[in-house]
Amino acid sequence: MENQIYYCENCGGVMEFDVETQSLKCPNCDTVVPILNEKERIVEHSLTRHAMQTIRAEEKTTQTMECKGCGAKIEVDPTSTAVECPYCGSSYVLAEKQEDAIIPDGVIPFQIDRERVGELFRHWMKGRWLAPGELKHLYQRERLQGVYLPYWTFDAKADARYTAMGGRHRTVTHRSSDGKTTHRVVTDWYPTSGSLRKAFDDVLVPASHKLDEELLRRTGVFGTQQMASYAPEYFSGYGAECYTVDLDDAHGEALQAMGQELESMARQDVLRRFDEVRDVRVRADYRDETYKHVMMPVYTTAYSYKGKQYHVLINGQSGRVEGDYPKSPVKIAGIVAVILIIVASLYWFSRDDDRGYADIQNTWTAEAATELGDEEEIPWDYLEDSLPT
């Protein structure tokens, strides 16, 4: 299959996707060619094996690159100039044959351009004050790459029943034999149940586990309201990874996420009538289940520091930056030392104040003894009136 390259009709240059215009743009003469966005082509497929088999893999127009460093399968437009894996920094090698995969149903195009993402990255780096000083120069030498990550989305209508224990607080007063009164709060537990109904829309499940899932989660969710119909033009100048998570496995993750949300809804429902809730159990039936295969934008880089690898991700839609970085032992030790000094200083100042207060109290106690006589008991309220407030 012949790869698609988008040449400028005016100057013959290779056109790339432009974030500002959301179109193809020639970097040489600024010619802009709109990308057709047909919302009706973003189809929700019924969750059946038949639907999976009817989407033809041969419609792909990108090339599959396999990283020899970490094994990631990367979909790269033929115009891409990337020479390093965005996940481990290793060089790409072209896979021997085209990988069979379904084409995406939709894509969220990059909303943050490379200039802006560089500013976001530098700002994030300045906030890593525990990082070693030389790391800043290492970051500046690294190249942030734009990559589309594969996701599955799931829709479903859920009808659920739940059972739980609801607790009501009450205050118990107890009077001891010496006449002292104490109060304590006890909780009475009652069984309760209820029903829930929820329409889930675009529950996102990553279709690849090459990136750290916690790091990916921290970069924030993607707003699917900006979803465009799939067009290979969006990938011009960017890379894209193949999906490596089966639809069945992703569906299981989606059901788990839906179940957690239904449990949270059940807890909130119980708390409308009770003070506490525990032992929540939800049984849900799902119907009208559908799915889509979509691509989401991220900027990513990998770098090594003293033999250990670190990753940074930037959400290509919202611009949120999350990443790992080494912590300087010298800086951490300095912070610990400062904290210890502050704690020690507060302790010694407190001791000095206590000693000074005791000296004053002893002096005024002696004065009171002189006035009242040695045989008389010194009333404490006298001292209280004498001591400074």
Proportion of helical residues: 25-40%
Largest sheet: 12 strands, mixed
Mean pLDDT equals: 79
* Overall strand count: 15
Indicate how many domains the architecture comprises: 2
Q: What is the chain-wise order of helices and strands?
A: EEEEHEEEEHHEEHEEHEEEHH
Shape by Cα distribution: flat
Distance between the termini: 90 Å
Structural class by sheet pairing and helices: alpha+beta
Unreliable residue runs: 55-60, 79-83, 91-99, 371-389
Radius of gyration: 33 Å
Describe this protein's structure:
- The protein is an alpha+beta fold.
- The chain has two domains: 16-327, no CATH class; 333-386.
- It is 28% helix and 33% strand.
- The chain is built from seven helices and 15 strands.
- Strands 4, 5, 6, 7, 8, 9, 10, 11, 12, 13, 14 and 15 form a twelve-stranded mixed sheet that branches. A three-stranded antiparallel sheet has the order 1-2-3, with no helix packed on it.
- The longest helix is centred in the C-terminal third of the chain and has 44 residues, at 329-372.
